[in-house]
Amino acid sequence: MKTQKFNITVAQSKIDWVGKKVTGAHNGTIQLKAGELSLTDGQITAGRFVVDTTSIKILDITDPATNAQFAGHLASNDFFSIEQYPEAYFEITSVQGNHVKGDLTIKGIANPVAFDVKTKLNDDTLTATGTIVIDRTKFGIKFRSGNFFQNLGDTLIYNDFDLNIVLTAKAVEVPAQA
Would you indicate the residue range of the signal peptide (predicted)? Predict the structure, then answer.
């Protein structure tokens, strides 16, 4: 069995988010802070990454004032409470084939998530891609959720949001065993 460790290259990795509501959707990006992945015989077997919640950007709103207002709302306690929780975490708990299960922690609340991942290994560079669908209400984000508020009409925000993740990682040199 050949096991390799990789450190995520945050500058070459990205997370795109999409949140949907009755009247449309919003999208943006969020940056990674750090992370690592392990491969055994070419398959991901372990990993962890840290997300910088203070880096949330909104891409679909071009008016600077409206964008800043929305960004402030996402940073508030209605959504991600980024002053109190500047980081979110994901840690792999198991892998079967290309199906990954792990614990996602947002706002200090951990919940299991599962998704499919595609990997590509090119020399010492690993690329892993996948989409995590997250029910925000499991992390205490209840703002305009139909599960908690009635008669929202066209102001309803759907509970699920997507994180489309592209991780690029470089192999870590492991010292030879003596």
Answer: none
Rounded CA-CA distance 48/35 in Å is: 5
CATH number assigned to the domain covering 3-171 = 2.40.128.110
Query: Which residue would you say has higher pLDDT here, 176 or 66?
Result: 66
User: CA angle at residue 60 from 17 to 34, to 5 degrees?
Assistant: 35
Using alpha carbons, list the distances in angstroms from residue 135 to 2, 36, 86, 138, 141. 36, 25, 20, 6, 9
* The pair of three-digit structure tokens given for residue 81, joined into one six-digit string: 């409470």
167: nearest Cα among 5, 11, 36, 14: 14
Most confident segment among 95-99, 142-146, 170-174: 95-99
What SS3 class is residue 141?
Answer: coil
Beta carbons within 10 angstroms of residue 58's beta carbon: 20
Pull the structure tokens for residue 23. 């009247």
Bridge partners for 21 per DSSP: 24, 157
- Its pTM surpasses 0.70: yes
**Nearest 5 degrees, angle CA 139-CA 114-CA 159?**
40
